[in-house]
Amino acid sequence: METRLDTRYSADDATAIPWAQARKVLTEAEVSWLTTIRPDGRPHVTTLLAVWLDDSAYFCTGAEERKGRNLAENPHVALTTGCNRLHEGLDVVLEGDAVRVRDTAKLRRIAEAYEAKYGSEWRFTVSDDGAFLNTYGDEALVYEIAPVTAFGFGKGLYSQTRWRF
To answer: Residue limits of the Pyridoxamine 5'-phosphate oxidase N-terminal domain (predicted)?
Structure first.
């Protein structure tokens, strides 16, 4: 991984943010924003719940939801999280491709991660044929984003760090 401070957008005394700090933000964030690309090229942004596991972000969606339909056509995404304060915190943006997860063992680990993070309200089960089911029995498609590039925007002491994987 390459870590680089972009001095054009950083305070004179800023230093590059360690990836471990960004990973902590991704792990602890309760809400993230996912940007997908509509078939006509326009962006679509929506909030969602995500879990960080094995150096990747995971989220789920219904096949017929806008983001699900977008991902069927174009896997390029950005996942954003952080805080809405100007003088504190760290915002993180992951760029990569959303790849559908179909491995039953991995899906079970993701389901466990959702419940550990969000509680029983967000309990999923995985059927023997690999379906990821919510508490109503509806199937959700699970996607993994392994970051290709990520950005960290430090606030207070303003900084912009780029990580390339």
So the answer is: 20-122
Task: Say if CB 140 and CB 134 are below 8 A apart.
Answer: yes
Contact 49, 118 (CB under 8 A): yes
Residue with tokens 């954003």: 80
Which band of pLDDT confidence, cut at 50, 70 and 90, is reported for residue 29? very high
Tokens 């939801």 belong to residue: 65
Please state the domain extents for the chain: 2-100+133-164
pLDDT, one tens digit per residue, over 30-87 is 999 999 999 999 999 999 999 999 999 999 999 999 999 999 999 999 999 999 999 9
Architecture, CATH, for domain 2-100+133-164:
Roll (2.30)
Please report, for residues 54, 121, 163, the alpha-carbon distance to residue 159 in angstroms, rounded to integers and kept in the order given.
27, 37, 13
User: What does the DSSP 8-state code read for residue 16?
Assistant: P
Amino acid letter at 53?
L
Instruction: Give the burial string for 29-56 (b: 16+ CB within 10 Å, else e).
Output: beebbbbbbeeeeeeeeeeeebbbbeeb
